[in-house]
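ok here's the first one, seq then struct tokens
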Amino acid sequence: MAKFDSVMSRCFKHRLLRSKASWFYHWFNSQFDREQLAVLAGRNAYEQNQGIGSQSSSLLRRNTHRIEKGLSMSPRRAIFAQEYILETVDCFALCIDLTQLCNEELSWAHDVLSYYFKVVKHTDVISDANLIFESAQARYTAKYITARDSVSSRAQTPKIPYTKHQLIKSDISAEQFHSLCVQRRSVRWFTDELVPDEILNQAITTAALAPSACNRQPFNFYVANETELATQVAKLAGGTVGFAENIPCTIVVVGDLSAYALERDRHLIYLDGALAAMQLMLALETLGLSSCPINWPDIEVPENKMAKLLKLESYQRPIMLIAIGYAKESGMIPYSQKKTIAVLRKDIH
């Protein structure tokens, strides 16, 4: 079968057939079936749930971020976001009644919308949206801002766009950051010391600061923080033979395709998940923990086993695994020569 597949793929190299690559994968190779099914399941879930998940709303997050970008423009337009402001306030109103939705997410959307309606020029559409928001705002205040904490809430800095000079400056130099990146190696040999949950949470909190397209953050960190379970999860990936048994903690980065209404965004789970994963590994290094990113190839049997073990929905896709633990000082680490500037940089002319 593999030989037939190879022969057919060479046939499709012909320039007249290149535009018909979908024919090849429809008739002769089913390797993209799982991704296509996951994308379709994600679209269906998005439409059915109106862009609102159990703990987070990708629609509210996306539109709130779009409004933030409009507020940050220089010069700022007098009228913007008309095309989606009604959709946004309707979503905000729905989210208020969801008990499991993240309060911080609602607070951010509330603050941005409040600021937006104060500074934007009101058209008929924006005025209608403002009326819906004011009604929702009253319910939000009654539910989330009690008499006991209203004073402290007013004292908090609103979650709205700010200028660069307001950022807290880090005292890390370029040399120090480079040293951290040199220090972070893919470690495969760990001690049997347990990984404290509070340290994992601290690293995940740092990872959550990674950039994400429209701030949707379409991923979760599935944590197996017990050696037997960590090994079981790690063994599902083909590249852990010989060292899976000594992994004390394994994290599976899982993408959520229900965050998107359109197929064009299907790759964002991999982009955003990888950005967060890299930040997670650097954070772990500063906390005394070592890590090893583990490739997750799209192979049917491991995919099915992982989905069953993690109880994943059809629109959730494993992106990668990360082995975590305290490194054995005597453990060997591959040298892994990296590509040079001369190879990596390509100037655009």
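and now the second one, same deal
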Amino acid sequence: MAFDAVRGQPAAVDVLTRALASGRVAHAYAFVGPPGVGRKLTAKAFAKALLCPLTLPLPGGERGSGTGHEAGSCPTCRRVEAGIHPDYMLIAPTPPEGKTSGTLLIRIEAIRQLEQRAALCPAEGAWKVFIVDDAGRMTAEAPQAFLKTLEEPPARTVIILILAHTRELPATVLSRCQVVRFMPLHEEEAVALLEARGMDEGTARLLARASQGRPGLALAQDPAAWLERRELALSILADVGADGATAVFKWGETLGRDRAQMEQLIETWWLWYRDLLCAKAGGDPRVLIHGDRAAELTRDAAARSWDSIVGGLAACREAWQALQRNVTPRLTLEVMLSRLALRTA
């Protein structure tokens, strides 16, 4: 019952359920998979199962005396969900100290705070649980500071690292964790989940495809806003194709200050060019993410060369990588749109 809210991750749930049933809980886990597929949801469910006095496994393999309960219905589970349980701590990337903006990172100060709390005995239950969300955003020195805690874990402590790829952390860190894999959901699973949250079938299917099986990303945004962003992205491409450099600099000035919006637009363009490639190859229309625009994609793909489409995908990838290296959004946008304009010229 602890994992009732988790969808589409049977392998991960099975690993954790067996650990709880046997009482053989690892001191550290690495939840590895793309964002939006339930990694943090599963980590919090695991924390609730460990800390709840009705279901927790005790050191040595014994279990609590309770018979279980509906997930999240007891005070302990509610305090974990709210982040106020004394034996639970969630660490996430933050801006530099004293600033409300800036690069989001997990800095060494946060890791030292985790180590200090891990050294204490549990305040209420049999375990202490620490979740490090987006652990791949640790600064260069943070993993090394973390290593000692993983090598000599304090008693009754469970640490869960959440990351997208194993290469995001040094092998010395990951080798001390039990890796639990998370996969994108199948389209029908994602559609059903989104429909259960109130979306109509058409919108749910469109966002399930656009999020590529990551319903958490779809739920994090307003469907109407997503459609508006797609229209904006396509209008920018049309404008640049018609007016060239004038449009490039106009949109650079208009949009070049918002890094988050720039990431969203680049992803939209990437998915559009991906669909152009599918249409150019004569692929099944059911694989198109923008299936509601299939006719437009077919016309656009027929008018483009293979080099133009592949080059567009490369420009999107390079722009995304530039943003991750902290290149300014305006420069990133202007360079990318210039490359796309040349490809369509």
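notes on #2: Residues 185 and 213 are 5 Å apart (CA to CA). The radius of gyration is 23 Å.
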